[in-house]
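Quick one, tokens below. Sequence please?
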């Protein structure tokens, strides 16, 4: 399906005697752009996207650092608005309402505060270039930590 959509293409076919052919795919320019669009969306939006946001953070290097920071800044503004709304709801609770009925909003406030604290730290690190990457640096890290593909190991 990804081939049909033009997001990946066959890069090579590896033939090994006694084994089925192995097809290696490579991402196309269209595939890269679709991935960037998804990545931007997952970094900036909030809501019930837990697995997607974690996945997006794990591959944030797919965007340039400034682009990633801009997406996270949008997320930060949305979370700050959610926090302000939650705090207003807590402040507007009827006097004398037992805490038992406020626990959900207390929890939501605590979670939003923690998310904002972490997010603001990452944004600051991106802004100050304490967290930074480039295509060249990523290639060097890849070469240092990913062993070369040796077909003999697959047998």
């Amino acid at each position: 399906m990804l081939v049909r959509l033009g997001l990946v293409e066959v890069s090579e076919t590896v033939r090994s005697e006694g084994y089925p052919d192995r097809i290696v795919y490579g991402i196309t320019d269209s595939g890269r752009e679709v991935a960037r669009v998804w990545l931007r969306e997952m970094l900036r939006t909030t809501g019930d996207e837990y697995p997607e946001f974690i996945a997006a953070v794990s591959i944030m290097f797919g965007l340039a650092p400034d682009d990633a920071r801009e997406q996270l800044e949008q997320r930060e503004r949305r979370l700050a608005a959610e926090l302000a709304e939650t705090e207003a709801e807590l402040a507007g609770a009827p006097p004398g309402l037992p805490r038992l009925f406020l626990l959900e909003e207390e929890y939501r406030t605590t979670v939003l505060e923690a998310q904002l604290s972490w997010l603001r730290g990452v944004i600051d690190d991106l802004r100050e270039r304490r967290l930074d990457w480039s295509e060249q640096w990523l290639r060097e890290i890849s070469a240092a930590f990913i062993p070369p593909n040796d077909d003999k190991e697959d047998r």
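Residues 136 and 142 are 10 Å apart (CA to CA). The beta strands are 8-14, 22-27.
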